[in-house]
Design goal:
about 10% strand, alpha+beta, 17 strands
Length: about 575
């Protein structure tokens, strides 16, 4: 009976997947990789620069259209008060949670004809652009929001008023900001978009030149250096096929709570760090009260806990990541700043959950991942953190994934991770390799592939191969010392296309560590990115029991993922030695 139930459930999932995939395949994306195996809601995504074949309102999913109908009811148009009230209801927000200033800005951008009313058609069209629009459409929407007098130009005062309101939003949310940065921020925008010093910006200049300022603008000028690489913004990375948590999504409040918690935990620790963390720093934790949500049917804690803040600040320093850049990537500034380019940015979330029920979130700029962890993984994190800090601080080329933070929101614990593929070119293929064969096949044929799907070799010259294997052996020996198993080597493959991408000739693309630019293949057709992930599973009593059961039930017990630590490490390394040509 259990087998029959499992089969029925699998058939339902496959049928749902096929239906969603048919919907998803109506739209094409440059270098799109389908990493999602099952959709719970139907969303439309497209990359910047894609020719739009549908009207903006036709990009909305059935779920979103139903929610818009709920806002309007039998009313043909909404004034500002009813508009804000409707958004509050959808977002589960009240005035104690989220300031109405943001909703007023959204109302102005939705009011296409400037008559003080928003019709359902205007609402749907603006939502289609705000959530799924291309670069030009987004900047047109932003221009409409800022150009209050509708004279076809943005004046200095108009832009300064809007930016000031956005700073007020952050101040209302108890984010520590410096109001003296408003004028330099507006000055920088006018310097780039109004080079002739006409004291106004035309719609044509705004749409044409704003994309080059996007990374600076989204962070509201709060980033350390406008000219730095980290301040630059890649539309193609951000607007890829992933699930953005928009204002209509049931997880919107949860995501914004997470963003606020991270921001609060960082803003009080922007002072200079001196020396390595001490013993007491590993046991330290801080708690922050967050605004309370009244979202119906969804319970969320008002307490955000930040574990070992000094320790993770030290790790971020080891990675060369500034505190302000980290919190701007994950903080709530993007909610307001994104409106200046006609986009609504939050973290994205995978639509499916892993075997352990993990939630995966990704920062709007693809730099960081936030993953929920089980209680067992939480204990492991606490236990191995001192050894991890000691090893990573001395091994700059380590392939082990980087931890940037450790926090708790509600009953769940989370870790903040560096995205191994951040800053890379578009990933055309991806493998998750453990060195085992039992259950290591991607049956659905899309997304990340596994060991049994690997039918090729990675073409790396002998010197680089030896350097990579040497680092792998060092990292694995460290994981043996931690009694950790079940880790994987994640491999991302970018296929070189000189017609679509510009490759820096000064870069040899020969770094083996995370964030070093990847390794170019010997035939100059591919760039490879490597990293070791999922390092929080210890070979304890539970795993030992699983190993015993597998010895009786599995066809090939030695090829199961769960085997003793030393055996796992040997099998892992033996497999990796054979994947390179």
């Amino acid at each position: 009976q259990n087998q029959q139930n499992q089969q029925n459930q699998q058939n339902q999932q496959n049928q749902q997947f096929q239906q969603n995939q048919q919907f998803h395949n109506q739209f094409s994306y440059p270098d799109r990789i389908s990493r999602i195996s099952n959709y719970q809601e139907l969303f439309v995504y497209h990359s910047a620069g894609l020719e739009i074949k549908k009207k903006p309102q036709e990009r909305l999913s059935p779920v979103q259209l139903i929610k818009i109908d709920q806002i309007f009811g039998n009313i043909k148009s909404l004034d500002e008060i009813r508009f804000i009230s409707g958004l509050r209801e959808l977002c589960g927000a009240n005035t104690n949670w989220y300031t109405d200033v943001l909703f007023k800005l959204i109302f102005k951008s939705f009011d296409c004809d400037g008559d003080g009313l928003v019709t359902k058609e205007e609402f749907q069209q603006a939502c289609g652009i705000l959530l799924y629009g291309d670069i030009t459409e987004g900047n047109e929407l932003a221009f409409q929001m800022i150009d209050v007098d509708r004279d076809g130009f943005i004046s200095y005062d108009e832009l300064e008023r809007v930016v000031t309101k956005m700073y007020q939003i952050l101040l209302y949310l108890k984010i520590k900001i410096d109001y003296s940065r408003i004028k330099p921020f507006v000055n920088k925008i006018f310097e780039k978009l109004d080079p002739d010093n006409k004291k106004r910006i035309s719609k044509e200049d705004w749409i044409k030149k704003m994309p080059k300022l996007a990374g600076f603008v989204i962070k509201l000028g709060l980033a350390n250096d406008f000219n730095s690489e980290k301040s630059k913004f890649n539309y193609q990375i951000i607007l890829g096929p992933k699930t953005k948590i928009q204002i209509f999504h049931e997880k919107f409040i949860f995501i914004t709570q997470m963003m606020l918690g991270i921001r609060y935990s960082i803003q009080d620790r922007l002072d200079v760090l001196t020396g390595k963390p001490g013993y007491s720093d590993f046991n330290q934790q801080e708690s922050f009260k967050l605004p309370i949500s009244n979202l119906k049917g969804f319970t969320i804690s008002e307490i955000f806990i930040n574990f070992a803040p000094v320790v993770f600040k030290f790790l971020r320093k080891c990675y060369g990541t500034s505190e302000i850049d980290y919190c701007l990537s994950l903080g709530p500034e993007q909610l307001a700043g994104g409106l200046l380019i006609g986009k609504f940015f939050t973290m994205s979330m995978s639509l499916t959950e892993g075997k352990s029920g993990s939630i995966f979130l990704k920062s709007f700029d693809d730099q960081y991942l936030i993953k929920s962890i089980s209680n067992r993984e939480r204990r492991t994190m606490i236990e191995i953190l001192p050894q991890y800090v000691s090893y990573i601080s001395e091994q700059s080329n380590s392939l082990i994934n980087r931890y940037f933070g450790f926090m708790q929101l509600g009953p769940k614990s989370f870790v903040s991770l560096g995205n191994i593929f951040a800053g890379s070119f578009a990933i055309n293929d991806c493998f998750d390799l453990k060195g085992s064969t039992e259950g290591r096949t991607n049956k659905q044929g899309v997304g990340t592939k596994k060991d049994n799907d690997l039918k090729r070799k990675f073409l790396i010259d002998s010197d680089k191969k030896q350097e990579l294997l040497s680092q792998l052996e060092s990292d694995v020996q460290f994981l043996i010392g931690l009694n950790v198993i079940d880790y994987s080597l994640i491999v991302g493959i970018h296929k070189i296309d000189t017609n679509k991408y510009v490759y820096d000739p000064k870069k040899m693309y020969g770094g083996i560590g995370i964030g070093t630019g990847g390794i170019r293949s010997m035939d100059n057709k591919e760039i490879y990115y490597f990293g070791i992930i999922d390092c929080l599973t210890r070979y304890g009593i539970t795993k030992k029991g699983e190993y015993i059961v597998n010895n009786f039930l599995a066809k090939q017990p030695s090829q199961c993922s769960c085997i003793p630590t030393q055996d796992y490490a040997k099998r892992f390394l033996d497999f990796m030695k054979n994947i390179f040509a």
